[in-house]
Each structure stands twice: as C-alpha cells, then as structure tokens.
Amino acid sequence: MTETVQKLPLIGEPAPSFEAETTQGRIRFPEDYRGKWVVFFSHPADFTPVCTTEFMTFAAMHKEFQGLNCELVGLSIDSTFSHIAWLRTIREKVAFRGIKDVEVMFPVISDLTMQVSRAYGMLQPAASTTQAVRAVFVIDPEGKVRAILYYPLTNGRNIQEIKRLLMALQTSDKHKVATPAGWVPGEEVIVPPPGSCGAAKERMSAADPAVRCVDWFLCFKNLPD
Q1: CATH number at residue 212
Q2: 219 in catalytic set
Q3: Among residues 51, 70, 197, 213, which one is catalytic?
Q4: Which value, to the nearest 10 degrees, does the dihedral of the CA atoms of residues 124, 12, 70, 65 take?
C-alpha cells in the first residue's frame, strides 16, 4: 500500500484552501479573509483546561487583534455542537486572570474528518493521533503563510507574543525593515544590511543622523510615530 505523504505549508507559501463549518457559519479559507491578516490556531480538544485558558485570552483580546486588521480563527477535532457547548460553559462558569463572562465571537472550525488538521500539519502522531497540537499560523492579507508556531499539548501559548509577532510582521512589511529580539512598537528597528562592499562602505561613511550603526551589518533607526 502506498502511504500518502502530506506536505506541510511553509512560510511564504499560499495557505492551503478549504471550506468548513464553524460556530459562526460556513467559511471558505483563506478566500473569505482576503485583505486581512489572520491568526489561525488549533487546540487539542474542547472542555480541556489549557485550551480553556487560551480561548478566554484570545476572546478577551479579540478586539485588539481586529484593531490590527486581523481576524482570529480556531480549530479542533470536535463537532460544532461540542464547540458551542464548551464556549457557553466558558461564558457562564469560568473565570481566569480577571477574565470572566467572556464570549468567543471568532469562528471555531469543526474538523471531525481531520482534513484541515492534516493539511496544516496540526496532527502529529508522536504527540497524538486524535488531537491537534497547538499550532499557530499567521497569514497575511494575500493569503500567504508568514509565521508558524507549534506548541505541545501540555503548554499554553503566550497570546501577547502572538500579537507582538503580528505587529512586527506588519511593521516589516510597511517600512521594509527587520525587528530585533523582543521588539515592541516604539523601539528601534533594524535597517536591512547592505548587499555589497561598496554599499557597506557608503553606509559607514554616510552621516545619517536617523541611522545608528554598530558596524556595517548592524544598523538601527527609529520609525516615525
């Protein structure tokens, strides 16, 4: 028997397309989200403790993501009925770090066939054959995968870090710069290094007050407010 090998989406490639039922109705992905950024993430299962804390945090920050022209889309290998019951329980019964009475308004995909989970590499047999790992895909307004994060079943994600990564990607696209480790808006960004010896000498000899060079390959600048 020939075994089918699923190629995982890679950074810079188009996000795999699919249609699916969700808690907010049927969606076509990523076509329905053209012109917007998307944080598409999977969780192992409904009614599990770590997932509950993540979903509450995502829901509490939903408007912050929307303010960055970004939508959230969740997924697990559960039915829509299970999703709805779990989200209702979260709203009515659970409090976490001051978050309570929170309503999850972003769509949560039902993936009982595991088709979407397989297409995005969310099923990893060494971890589980029936639960998706905690995957995060940041997808840009053109429908391309721009960042991929994988977490194990046991450990929750830092949602603030996902938001920070989104802002860093948007900043790099807008200003054609890179961002240093731990960058947050308002801090210096990295000017792309020169592509030739001549350009490197020119950069080091130029007296540009807006650019701070440590060496020819590492220069910083502040962005406009």
Answers
A1: 3.30.1020.10
A2: no
A3: 51
A4: 60
Residues 63 and 127 in one domain: yes
34 shares its domain with 68? yes
Q: Which of 134, 149, 175 is the C-terminal boundary of a domain?
A: 175
CB-based contacts of 60-65 (< 8 A; 24+ apart in sequence): 60/99, 60/102, 61/159, 61/160, 61/163, 62/105, 62/106, 64/163, 65/39, 65/163, 65/166
Instruction: Please write down the long-range contacts of 43-46, taking CB distance under 8 Å and 24 or more positions apart.
Output: 43/74, 43/75, 43/76, 43/132, 43/134, 44/76, 44/128, 44/131, 44/132, 44/133, 44/134, 44/153, 45/76, 45/77, 45/78, 45/131, 46/76, 46/78, 46/82, 46/83, 46/85, 46/86
pLDDT digits (tens, 9 = 90+) for 52-93: 999 999 999 999 999 999 999 999 889 999 999 999 999 999
With 70 as the cut, is the pLDDT of residue 185 above it? yes
pTM for this predicted structure: 0.90
9 lies in some domain: no
Q: Are residues 84 and 124 in the same domain?
A: yes
